[in-house]
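Support case: user asked for a sample of complex input and structure output to validate their parser. Sending the pair below.
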Amino acid sequence: MYNTEIRGPLITGDKTFHQVTEDICHPIDRKPGYWWYFVLLLCLGALVYGSWALKITVKDGIGSWGLNNSVSWGWGIINFVWWIGIGHAGTAFSIFLLILEQKWRTSINRAAELMTVVAVICAVHFPILHIGRLWDGFFIFPYPNTRGPLWLNFNSPLFWDVIAIFAYFVASSLFWYVGMIPDLATIRDRTTSKIKKAIYGFFSFGWVGSSQDWLRLETLNWLIGGLIAALVVSVHSIVALDFATSILPGWHSTIFPPYFVVGAILSGFAMVITLMIIIRKIYKLNDYITDSHLNAICKILIFISLIMGTAYATEIFIAWYSDNEYEMFTFFHNRVTGDYNKAFWVMILSNAILPQLFWFKKIRKNLTIVFIISICINIGMWFERYVIVVTSLTKDFFPSNWTDYSPTGVEVGLFVGTFGFFILCILLFFRYLPMISIHEVKGVLKYKINK
Amino acid sequence: MDENYSVSPTFKFIILGIVFVGIITIGLGLYINPEKTWANFLLSNYYFISIIVGATFFLAIQYITQSGWSAMFIRIPHAIGMYMPVAAITILFLIFGMHSIYHWSIPGVAEHSPEIEHKSPYLNIPFFFIRLVIIFALWILMTWLLRKTSLKEDHESNLKYFYKSEYYSKIYIFILAITFSLLTFDLIMSIDVYWFSTVFAVKNFVSGFYHAVSVITLIVILLNRNGYFRDLNKTHLRYFSRYIFILGIIWAYLWFIQYLLIWFANIQEETIYYVIRTEGKWKTFFFLNIILNWAIPFSILLPARTNANKLVLIFISIILIIGHWVDLYLQIMPGSVGEFNIGYIEIGVFAGFSGLFIFIVSRALGRIPLIPKNHPYLGESINLH
């Protein structure tokens, strides 16, 4: 009784089951176009720059970054939080819509989950590199050791981060992979090349599609789904705790954890919509990623951006209400006005104001504008972390500590490198894996208009 | 399908009796211990305001997420919304009790305290009530529009009304985001005038939503036991309990976050809030709060075996109705009355207000058709499996 008349169709074009498989496997069967190789080349360029930066960081140390005694966290943490944020929403998207039984998730969840896994890998580069002595990196894991009583500090949110992100990465990649098994088997069964058959056969774990297979798959999906729903919230909350457990004005705010989670979902959904528009455009999958899908994501963006706007307003209001001179200084003299006010206003404009344009149906329908706004949100979310990290650190309690901060080429290189990696993974995903979940789309194929 | 709920005269009589008891208690209380009475008056008012806001938010959420399963039950949040004007009137009586609850409202206090002086452009009695009036006017308008559109849909099958409801829901949520924050800061947070927490309003909003869903669930099940909502099945119950379960986790999350961050940073002006609440007699309520609002619902609703059982859901709803009171008691009393003492005033005032709430809501349910007609998702809701 799923009413598609009001909600908008899930899949258009009166597809048969066979056509669904054909359409989605089409990019895997054929050689990619020239654009694919061109983008690949760009990614490799970015990766070369990134590798150079990586080499300098490891060889020369953190001194090659633009950090100083006051601003001890710079682009590294900004990019870390930003990537985690993006990595957040893929799973948030998939899980919350699964739990809330929103049927339109089926066309989008696969790409969104991939985005999660890759973005988390991008994110973890930064804290790992910031350790400095990379060869001692394993010290962050708690294990009985020969260093005597020297354990790591269990009270430190940085350690909670390690645990939270690790758990999140494992769970979300598992979720992504498990959902893909039947599709891998589909590719295995239809390919003619022996090598492909062997590879896809290996990765589909001998899936035969018996009812028992399906039962186990669905049970597992629900189980991991339920667990990840909690992890989604915990991972970014703990990232927020890195800041909020301190006493620095602008960081110590009880709203930080939920506000980070929501912010992450905002940037992630923006990235999902960016990605979906690209997939739709290039692979002509308009029948699967329909206008109503994009419309629904836009509506969610309005709602999330509204929460963000309220959170910004609350922070500023409470800064005034608290009558704490440091809070007042940070918010009114350092953010709203002051050296970094441009970053602040970029943040407000692109996170709280621009998405509100989606109230208008005309704008939601115009994919070019949607695309531009989604990019703006991503930039805005980057600036949000910039505002939080840099304004609070450059000017803290002691004017004698005040400094400026600007990144060096090495820091920029690392960021560009992670971008290269992200896009490279997406390209490979386009080429070798089904980017829309075949079996889940087939599950909703027969929902038709009924009155 | 077009059955109407009818209130039995005995029920009405008992409820009015309870309301009467409440009025007597308030009268007596104002004479014997006005401070405590006003604090309880605020508690009961805020309690039901957050329930109404939560219930109407539930309604709005159903519209904007295009949820089909709940279409059958939308009249319950509509009926709860009808309590809004009454709440608006009763809260205005607070003007006579401001000095008993809010330290900042006492004339002359600002001269001795720079913090209060600083806040006085925002925290002053005229502006406080101007805000209240504006906020309630907006809420009454929006809930009325939502209800009116839905009732019009009953008479005329036209999708236009559904889209209109969806549109009003969006605007209502937009308004709620800001207004409920301000209301919570004003009514509750300003009691402890030196203390502040940015997550406070978010936490109370979720709390209202959480407890409102349990109230809606309770009403649905009770009506079902009296022969209404015959199409209620296990899946509906499971969806309700899923809502309660998830909101319970979010409630606990926000509670924990606020506590953890204040405890961890250990800034004197912030920790004082929890220092008071974890000492002496308050301590019991401090733990009771977590047990009632999180531990019990979480552990009981987790197994699939129990989470679609009517009796279990009734039990959980009652636990949560008590839990919400305990939560608010802990937020309001230490800063206003200052001593832990539950007596006839607490019970009487709350009973009176609950009586009023039940009276208004049950009358409202009797006036509007219990199950909406022509709602586009009605079929989906009735035949849910």
